[in-house]
Structures are given as structure tokens and as C-alpha cells.
């Protein structure tokens, strides 16, 4: 595998023709990061490498007969199918694998964005910077994963002595780690490069804010139930594909100057087809416990389990149709999972707001004059290119669940209760008793207090 | 008040701190008047230091003195004025404190954003100022909403619109933020993409630094005013003590970033601050006004009477043998809080200065002498608060890790949000737990219907 990178001044101009990627048939699987150092000596253009043709040779040979335009479609199509199959595979493999994949994707996205920052600012000769960026990534991940682990693996953590201490002082340890990085940054400030270093510091923090918090929200959603992970991501993917198809067949009116290929027809067609897709997908998935149950860690068997009594969200209910629909379809009631109604909200968000994440990424790429974030996926660009519409979706789903679906977790509340002082516990006990008696859940007894 | 601003190449000159050049009557104001000087190239030092913005009466009063002493007098007078201001707002109570923290936060944000505008000449992007302030409002809304919901829980539950706002708080905040995000995307103009992304990132990093710190300061305040006063006093004391020690004994430079800092000042400041913190903690721990926490929902005011928690109760400590021989005391009566104050002082003296170095590096990177000219002799508000950055976060993390348990009213709130069946489950668990601990007589368990 050679690691040549084709870099040139014509990178932004070749926007159309580089799509074809028909020109080169060299075998080049590129690697980010490591190989950037070699090509530092190019002209002062603050441009990142043009997309190299990195389709594997096997594909190239198989498709050598077709004309270049169709070949491009085939490459994209095959890779799309490959990615979707991969998605199904990891769903099958279970929650732990999913978490690891999310972690891996996050690291790759972080690397891609940081690499762009390095190229833009030619910060290679500040060797501390790469170390510090990765160090900050580690710190923030440690903080977030520590909080998640403490919540989910509560009993396991309480059992093991070192884990218990780590969990009790978790915030302090994370803060101390971050501070160390901060002090290292301050001590590493070099006289001529102050501004560069501050830029990279800011760049790293904004990247962490975007990438790491999103991936953390995805993991949280996953723990609510795999359906909360699968349906939003599928809606975004479906919207991408459907908007593309509608735009391809019916597209006429441009949507926004940032992305000239997007059209209003694609946008609206994508919205409706995604909503329909979301409803159907949630109908199919709501029947399966594997998807619907919150992921819990079974303390006895030391494994994750997804077995439970489905909440009322996932039980079929009868809904009376409003009168105009009754006359339209001839049905008076319809059986639906309540989750399907939520899925309409999720699909709408994915179709309407999700593209703004894509426009943000397009604007970012134009601002820094790059075609794709990287070349990891042939035909599609980097991992960030695939995930740009997912930015806002994960946060939205998390906020949606917190606001409309999930109440507090009772076991968590008990934990917090038991950590209070005794007199506070007593006070809460009495308030709770009064509340329950008021609501009629407890018979009115004589006061149990001494 | 004329609003001229003199800009020149003297930014890097250490003597310009004398500010003796002008006797014009100029109080600098940020923001609006920056638009005049747009034509500067980015590399021209954006010096804000050469204007002499001491009020004219002060100038007249100190006319007789030589310039160097005049500078010290101005700094001294302003220092005393600021410290008196600090005492005054402590006296005025928590609500005034919260308002002051918010004002400081807004001013710091404005200072940093103004620097960003000047660096990038982003004035011709009118949306940018609007968007930056909009994001500030969103993030503040989110944080203050969470704080209010936690601490004024009972009040919130009573009023219907407040209850609605509090229940869907996260969703509303997120929707507001999203609106700002979409506005940003729609406002991207073809030639200015890179500028706009820079300003977007600049705004977000500033929010991250300034707003989260101020939020943590407010949260510390809610633990008890002593957790607000002691850390801030420690940082101020360290500043002053390190300066004095450096002035009298300073010889070895500490770090290239800040050539005026010395090791003697650093170490002297450290020990002086530890002693100061110790004494201050002793004085304040006795006063219930500082130690108590909590909003009394009946009287709709902050309580100043309560049962102090055990860290504010005098306890006897046995001295280790080494100290016993020196002092011939066997035990000593101390508040446990004084021991915590040693840790706070150590942090404030050892790590706090890194916040100052960070700000110095920032100022050198963007070639400015001070963040702004708000305080005569001292620079902008950010210049005074740069060492406080990390202190507020440290205090908050310290409290969360070592002092405070979960907040009972918050736990009760969560309880009331559960389903009734879950509430019953929790009720029974709590009941058996309390019975085990002997807080309840072993009566018959109430039967659920």
C-alpha cells in the first residue's frame, strides 16, 4: 500500500471531475495523520489534500468496463450498501460493540478535524500540539465515560474497591487531569507562535465540544433502548438517500447557496418519505424486546441484558382518527404504538434540521477550501462527511427523551436518597408519605413517626 | 466624555503601564467606538493602554507627584475602591451578588468578543454581534433556568407558567440554541466563510470559559456565601501579596510569559495566602450570615439562620507530635473549614496564576496590552478576573467531591416526577431503610392499595 497523496492547487477547481475518480487506478489506501507530515513542504496554500482515488483495485478492475460517470455511481452505491450492512451487523452484535464503534467513530472524526486544523495553520512544527489535543480528547472522554459507567454499572462499581474510589472522586480526578493539560499548554507557549497555539487550543476545544458531546449523547440514547439509537440514525440516512433521489429525479429549484446540489424538491420529498419510513420502521421495531428495552447491566451475570416489560410507549394502543381522516380512509380507529407518533417528531427533525448540520459542514469545507474531510470511505469522503447530518440529531433525541419521555430513574433516585443525611432522608420520607396519602395511594394511617 | 481612542505601536512597551502620557479626560468605552478604527491591519498592536482614562479630578489631585508614584497611587486607590465595593455587595445580600456576577460576566464576554471583532475586522458582518449576544442569552437562560429550578423548587411548582418552563426547560433551551445555529448557517456569506466560522468558534470558546465559570460561581454561592467570599478573597490576596513580595524581594523571573513575576513573589504569595485564608476562614465560620444556605420559600428570601453544617463547628484536633514539641499545645480548636481553606489557598496560589499566564499569553498573541480600559490603572474587568477562572471551577469540583452530598430538594423533585408505582417502591425501600437505622419505630408497614 503506497501512501502517496495527490496534492495540488487544482483541488477546489476539480470539484466535478474529481467525483469521477476515474483518472487514477493506482492502488492507494490512504491513512490520515501520519502521512501528512511528509507533504508539509508544499506551497503556502492553506489547503488540505485533494481527494485521492482510493477505491480498492479490486473494485476498479471490476468496474473498468463502465464509463466513468456510472462507475462513480457504482462505487458510491456499493459503499452505501456496505455501510448499511455494516450497520445491521453491529446492531446484531449488541450494545458493547455498538459503544465501541461509537467510540471509534468519535476518535476518527476528531482526528479528521484536528488534521484539517493542523493543515490550515501549518502547526506541524509545534510537536506538543498533537500530544495536547489527544490528551484533551482522552480527558473529556474519561470524564463522560466515567459518568456513564458510574450510572450503569453502579453495583459493580460499588463492589470493587479501586473503582469505588475512582467513581466517588470522579469529577475531581477528571478536573485534575484537565488542569494538567491546561498547565502543559500554558508552559508550552512559545514566543513566536502564541497566536497559532491559541488558535489550535480553541480549535481543539470546539471540536471536542461538537464531536465528543454528540457521541456521549448517542451512548446515552443507546442505553435508553437500542430503538432510540437505530431509528434516529436510520431517519437521517433515509433522509440523505431520499432527498438525493428526489433531487435527482425531480430537482429543479436550488435550496441554498451553500450546497448548490440541494433542491427544494429533494428537501420536501425527503421530508415526507422519511416520515413514512420512520413510521414503518418504528412499527417493525417496536415489536421486538431486543430493541425496545433499556440496556441494563445484570449484576449477577456480569453482562448486558435487554430483557424487560416494554413500557407503555411500545404497546399497541387504539387511536381514534380525527373526522376528516375517518371519511378519507374509512377507518374509525387505528392501532398504533405511541412510539410511532414520537417517530414522526424525530423524522421531522431529521429532515428539517438535520440538513442544517450538513450545511454547516459544507460551509466549513468551503471556508477552509477542502473538498472532503478526509478520504476514509471511497466515494464518500471522510467519516465526518457521513456523520455531519447526525450532529444535531443525537442532541435532539437526547433532549427529546429527557423532556418528553423519560422520568428520572427510580434506582438512581434511591441511590441519591441513601447518600443523604439521615435527617434529610426522614424529611423526604415524610413529604413523600404526605404526597402519596394525598393522592390516595396510601391509606390514611396514624402517623408512624415516633 | 470624549470617546477618542489612541492606538499606536507602543503596546509592547512595559513602561506604558505608567500611563503618564495623556492628561486628557477620556473614559474609554468598548464596543461602539471600535468601528472607527477598522482600517488597521491585524498586526498593528491593538493597544488600549495608551489612553489615560483616569478621571480628571484624580489627575488634578495627584498632579504634584512624580509620574511613577502617581501610577501606584491610582492603582492603590482603585484597588481599595474595588475591595470596598466587594464588601458592600457582600453586605447587600445574595440577590445583589448574583446580579453583580451576571454583570461581570456580560462585561467579560463583551471584552473578549470585542477583541475578536478587532482581530478579524468582522464589523462588516452585522449579524455577528447579534448572534454572539443571542448565544450568550441562550446559554445564560439554560444555566440560570437549571439553577432556579433546583433552588427555588417550591416557588416554581406554585406558578403555572414557571412550572411549564421548568419541566420543558432543556427542550426550550435547545430550541433557542438551534434557532441561533440555523441563523448562523443562513447568514454564511460567500466571501466571508472563514471569518464567520472563526467568530462562531471564538464566541463558543468565550462562552465556555466565561459563562460556565460564572455559573459555577453562582452555584458555589448557593452553598453558602463563605464559599463565594473565601475563594475570591484568596485570589485577590495572592495577587496583592505576590506583587508586594515581588516588589520588595523579587529577583528570579518565574516565566517568560510574564516577565514581572518572580519566584520570590510566587512563594511569598503562597505562604501569605495560606495564612490569610486560614485566618479569614476562622473569622467567617463564626458568622451564620456567611455559612448558611438555602432559600426559605415561605418568606421568599434567603435564610440567614440555620444549623451550621459540621464543617463550621469548632472541633478539637490533636496536633502531630512534631508540632506539639514546638508549640507545647496538645490539641487545637479549629473549624474543619479552615483545613479546607488551606487546600483552596494552595490551589489559588499555585495553579491560579496559570490562569493569569493564559491571559498574558492571549494578550501577547493578539498584541493587546489590556483587555479593555474599564478600570483605570488596572485595565478591563477580564484583567482582574483572569486568575479567578480556574478558582471557581476548582471550588465547585472540590465541594462536589469532598463536601456536599446530593441536594435534598432536588431529590424530592425527582421523586415527585416518578410514576406513582415507582414512588411507592421508593417509599417502601426508604421506609425499611429508616427503620433499620432506628429512625422510625418498628410499626406495621403501611399497606399499599
From TrEMBL, chain A:
<dbReference type="Pfam" id="PF01148">
    <property type="entry name" value="CTP_transf_1"/>
</dbReference>
<feature type="transmembrane region" description="Helical">
    <location>
        <begin position="169"/>
        <end position="190"/>
    </location>
</feature>
<keyword id="KW-0808">Transferase</keyword>
<feature type="transmembrane region" description="Helical">
    <location>
        <begin position="339"/>
        <end position="361"/>
    </location>
</feature>
<keyword id="KW-0812">Transmembrane</keyword>
<feature type="transmembrane region" description="Helical">
    <location>
        <begin position="197"/>
        <end position="219"/>
    </location>
</feature>
<comment type="pathway">
    <text>Phospholipid metabolism; CDP-diacylglycerol biosynthesis; CDP-diacylglycerol from sn-glycerol 3-phosphate: step 3/3.</text>
</comment>
<feature type="transmembrane region" description="Helical">
    <location>
        <begin position="263"/>
        <end position="285"/>
    </location>
</feature>
<keyword id="KW-0443">Lipid metabolism</keyword>
<dbReference type="InterPro" id="IPR000374">
    <property type="entry name" value="PC_trans"/>
</dbReference>
<keyword id="KW-0548">Nucleotidyltransferase</keyword>
<keyword id="KW-0594">Phospholipid biosynthesis</keyword>
<dbReference type="GO" id="GO:0004605">
    <property type="term" value="F:phosphatidate cytidylyltransferase activity"/>
</dbReference>
<dbReference type="InterPro" id="IPR016720">
    <property type="entry name" value="PC_Trfase_euk"/>
</dbReference>
<feature type="transmembrane region" description="Helical">
    <location>
        <begin position="225"/>
        <end position="251"/>
    </location>
</feature>
<feature type="region of interest" description="Disordered">
    <location>
        <begin position="1"/>
        <end position="53"/>
    </location>
</feature>
<keyword id="KW-1133">Transmembrane helix</keyword>
<comment type="function">
    <text>Catalyzes the conversion of phosphatidic acid (PA) to CDP-diacylglycerol (CDP-DAG), an essential intermediate in the synthesis of phosphatidylglycerol, cardiolipin and phosphatidylinositol.</text>
</comment>
<comment type="pathway">
    <text>Lipid metabolism.</text>
</comment>
<keyword id="KW-0444">Lipid biosynthesis</keyword>
<comment type="similarity">
    <text>Belongs to the CDS family.</text>
</comment>
<feature type="transmembrane region" description="Helical">
    <location>
        <begin position="133"/>
        <end position="157"/>
    </location>
</feature>
Automatic annotation (TrEMBL), chain B:
<comment type="pathway">
    <text>Phospholipid metabolism; CDP-diacylglycerol biosynthesis; CDP-diacylglycerol from sn-glycerol 3-phosphate: step 3/3.</text>
</comment>
<dbReference type="GO" id="GO:0005789">
    <property type="term" value="C:endoplasmic reticulum membrane"/>
</dbReference>
<dbReference type="InterPro" id="IPR016720">
    <property type="entry name" value="PC_Trfase_euk"/>
</dbReference>
<feature type="transmembrane region" description="Helical">
    <location>
        <begin position="72"/>
        <end position="104"/>
    </location>
</feature>
<keyword id="KW-0594">Phospholipid biosynthesis</keyword>
<comment type="function">
    <text>Catalyzes the conversion of phosphatidic acid (PA) to CDP-diacylglycerol (CDP-DAG), an essential intermediate in the synthesis of phosphatidylglycerol, cardiolipin and phosphatidylinositol.</text>
</comment>
<feature type="compositionally biased region" description="Basic and acidic residues">
    <location>
        <begin position="16"/>
        <end position="41"/>
    </location>
</feature>
<protein>
    <recommendedName>
        <fullName>Phosphatidate cytidylyltransferase</fullName>
        <ecNumber>2.7.7.41</ecNumber>
    </recommendedName>
</protein>
<dbReference type="GO" id="GO:0016024">
    <property type="term" value="P:CDP-diacylglycerol biosynthetic process"/>
</dbReference>
<feature type="transmembrane region" description="Helical">
    <location>
        <begin position="125"/>
        <end position="144"/>
    </location>
</feature>
<feature type="transmembrane region" description="Helical">
    <location>
        <begin position="337"/>
        <end position="359"/>
    </location>
</feature>
<feature type="region of interest" description="Disordered">
    <location>
        <begin position="1"/>
        <end position="52"/>
    </location>
</feature>
<feature type="transmembrane region" description="Helical">
    <location>
        <begin position="262"/>
        <end position="284"/>
    </location>
</feature>
<keyword id="KW-0808">Transferase</keyword>
<feature type="transmembrane region" description="Helical">
    <location>
        <begin position="228"/>
        <end position="250"/>
    </location>
</feature>
<keyword id="KW-0444">Lipid biosynthesis</keyword>
<dbReference type="Pfam" id="PF01148">
    <property type="entry name" value="CTP_transf_1"/>
</dbReference>
<keyword id="KW-1133">Transmembrane helix</keyword>
<keyword id="KW-0812">Transmembrane</keyword>
<dbReference type="GO" id="GO:0004605">
    <property type="term" value="F:phosphatidate cytidylyltransferase activity"/>
</dbReference>
<keyword id="KW-0443">Lipid metabolism</keyword>
<keyword id="KW-0472">Membrane</keyword>
Amino acid at each position: 500500500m503506497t501512501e502517496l497523496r495527490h496534492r495540488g492547487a487544482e483541488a477546489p477547481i476539480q470539484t466535478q471531475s474529481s467525483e469521477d475518480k476515474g483518472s487514477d487506478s493506482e492502488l492507494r489506501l490512504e491513512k490520515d495523520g501520519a502521512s501528512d507530515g511528509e507533504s508539509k513542504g508544499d506551497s503556502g496554500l492553506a489547503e488540505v489534500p485533494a481527494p485521492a482515488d482510493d477505491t480498492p483495485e479490486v473494485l476498479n478492475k471490476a468496474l473498468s468496463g463502465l464509463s466513468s460517470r456510472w462507475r462513480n455511481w457504482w462505487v458510491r452505491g456499493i459503499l452505501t450498501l456496505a455501510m448499511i450492512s455494516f450497520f445491521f451487523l453491529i446492531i446484531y452484535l449488541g450494545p458493547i460493540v455498538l459503544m465501541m464503534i461509537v467510540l471509534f467513530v468519535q476518535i476518527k472524526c476528531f482526528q479528521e478535524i484536528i488534521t484539517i486544523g493542523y493543515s490550515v495553520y501549518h502547526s506541524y512544527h509545534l510537536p506538543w500540539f498533537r500530544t495536547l489535543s489527544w490528551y484533551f480528547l482522552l480527558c473529556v472522554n474519561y470524564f463522560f465515560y466515567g459518568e456513564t459507567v458510574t450510572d450503569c454499572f453502579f453495583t459493580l462499581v460499588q463492589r470493587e474497591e479501586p473503582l469505588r474510589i475512582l467513581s466517588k472522586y470522579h469529577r475531581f480526578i477528571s478536573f485534575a487531569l484537565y488542569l494538567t493539560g491546561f498547565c502543559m499548554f500554558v508552559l508550552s507557549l512559545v514566543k513566536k507562535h502564541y497566536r497559532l497555539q491559541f488558535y489550535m487550543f480553541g480549535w481543539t476545544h470546539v471540536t471536542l465540544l461538537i464531536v465528543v458531546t454528540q457521541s456521549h449523547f448517542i451512548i446515552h440514547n443507546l442505553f435508553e433502548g437500542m430503538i432510540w439509537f437505530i431509528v434516529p440514525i436510520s431517519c437521517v440516512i433515509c433522509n440523505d438517500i431520499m432527498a438525493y433521489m428526489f433531487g435527482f429525479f425531480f430537482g429543479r429549484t436550488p435550496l441554498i447557496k451553500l450546497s448548490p446540489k440541494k433542491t427544494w424538491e429533494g428537501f420536501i420529498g425527503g421530508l415526507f418519505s422519511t416520515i413514512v419510513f420512520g413510521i414503518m420502521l418504528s412499527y417493525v421495531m417496536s415489536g421486538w424486546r431486543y430493541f425496545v428495552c433499556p440496556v441494563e447491566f445484570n449484576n449477577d451475570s456480569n453482562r448486558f441484558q435487554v430483557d424487560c416489560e416494554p413500557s407503555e410507549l411500545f404497546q399497541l394502543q387504539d387511536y381514534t382518527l380525527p373526522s376528516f381522516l375517518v371519511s378519507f380512509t374509512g377507518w374509525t380507529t387505528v392501532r398504533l404504538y405511541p412510539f410511532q407518533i414520537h417517530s414522526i417528531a424525530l423524522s421531522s427533525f431529521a429532515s428539517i434540521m438535520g440538513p442544517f448540520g450538513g450545511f454547516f459542514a459544507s460551509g466549513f469545507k468551503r471556508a477552509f477550501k477542502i473538498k472532503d474531510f478526509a478520504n476514509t470511505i471511497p466515494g464518500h469522503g471522510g467519516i465526518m462527511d457521513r456523520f455531519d447530518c447526525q450532529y444535531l440529531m443525537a442532541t435532539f433525541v437526547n433532549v427529546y427523551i429527557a423532556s418528553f419521555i423519560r422520568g428520572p430513574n427510580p434506582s438512581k433516585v434511591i441511590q441519591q436518597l441513601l447518600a443523604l443525611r439521615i435527617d434529610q432522608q426522614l424529611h423526604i420520607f415524610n413529604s413523600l408519605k404526605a404526597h402519596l396519602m394525598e393522592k390516595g395511594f396510601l391509606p390514611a394511617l396514624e402517623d408512624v413517626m415516633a | 466624555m470624549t470617546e477618542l481612542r489612541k492606538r499606536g505601536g507602543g503596546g509592547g512597551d512595559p513602561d506604558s503601564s505608567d500611563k503618564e502620557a495623556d492628561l486628557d479626560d477620556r473614559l474609554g468605552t468598548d464596543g461602539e467606538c471600535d468601528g472607527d478604527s477598522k482600517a488597521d491591519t491585524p498586526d498593528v498592536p491593538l493597544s488600549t493602554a495608551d489612553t489615560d482614562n483616569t478621571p480628571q479630578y484624580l489627575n488634578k489631585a495627584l498632579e504634584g507627584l512624580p509620574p511613577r508614584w502617581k501610577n501606584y497611587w491610582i492603582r492603590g486607590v482603585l484597588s481599595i475602591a474595588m475591595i470596598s465595593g466587594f464588601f458592600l455587595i457582600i453586605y447587600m445580600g445574595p440577590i445583589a451578588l448574583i446580579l453583580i456576577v451576571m454583570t461581570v460576566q456580560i462585561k467579560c464576554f463583551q471584552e473578549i468578543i470585542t477583541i475578536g471583532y478587532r482581530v478579524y475586522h468582522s464589523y462588516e458582518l452585522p449579524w455577528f454581534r447579534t448572534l454572539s449576544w443571542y448565544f450568550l442569552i441562550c446559554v445564560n437562560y439554560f444555566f440560570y433556568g437549571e439553577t432556579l429550578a433546583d433552588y427555588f423548587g417550591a416557588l416554581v411548582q406554585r406558578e403555572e407558567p414557571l412550572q411549564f418552563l421548568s419541566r420543558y426547560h432543556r427542550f426550550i433551551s435547545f430550541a433557542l440554541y438551534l434557532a441561533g445555529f440555523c441563523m448562523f448557517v443562513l447568514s454564511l456569506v460567500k466571501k466571508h466563510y472563514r471569518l464567520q466560522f472563526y467568530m462562531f468558534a471564538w464566541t463558543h470558546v468565550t462562552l465556555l470559559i466565561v459563562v460556565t465559570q460564572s455559573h459555577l460561581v453562582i452555584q458555589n454561592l448557593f452553598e453558602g456565601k463563605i464559599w463565594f467570599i473565601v475563594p475570591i478573597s484568596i485570589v485577590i490576596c495572592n495577587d496583592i501579596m505576590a506583587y508586594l513580595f515581588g516588589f520588595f524581594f523579587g529577583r528570579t523571573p518565574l516565566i517568560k510569559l510574564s516577565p514581572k513575576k518572580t519566584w520570590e513573589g510566587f512563594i511569598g504569595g503562597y505562604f501569605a495566602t495560606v495564612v490569610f485564608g486560614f485566618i479569614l476562614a476562622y473569622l467567617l465560620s463564626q458568622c451564620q450570615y456567611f455559612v448558611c444556605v438555602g432559600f426559605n420559600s415561605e418568606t421568599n428570601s434567603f435564610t440567614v439562620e440555620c444549623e451550621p453544617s459540621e464543617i463550621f463547628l469548632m472541633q478539637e484536633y490533636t496536633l502531630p507530635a512534631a508540632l506539639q514539641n514546638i508549640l507545647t499545645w496538645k490539641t487545637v480548636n479549629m473549624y474543619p473549614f479552615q483545613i479546607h481553606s488551606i487546600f483552596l489557598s494552595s490551589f489559588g496560589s499555585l495553579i491560579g496564576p496559570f490562569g493569569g499566564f493564559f491571559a498574558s499569553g492571549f494578550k501577547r498573541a493578539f498584541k493587546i496590552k489590556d483587555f479593555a480600559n474599564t478600570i483605570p490603572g488596572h485595565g478591563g474587568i477580564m484583567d482582574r478576573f483572569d486568575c479567578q477562572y480556574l478558582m471557581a471551577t476548582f471550588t465547585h469540583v472540590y465541594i462536589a467531591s469532598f463536601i456536599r452530598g446530593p441536594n435534598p430538594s432536588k431529590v424530592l423533585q425527582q421523586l415527585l416526577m416518578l410514576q406513582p408505582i415507582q414512588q411507592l417502591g421508593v417509599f417502601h425501600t426508604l421506609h425499611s431503610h429508616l427503620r433499620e437505622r432506628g429512625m422510625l419505630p418498628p410499626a406495621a408497614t403501611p399497606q399499599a392499595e
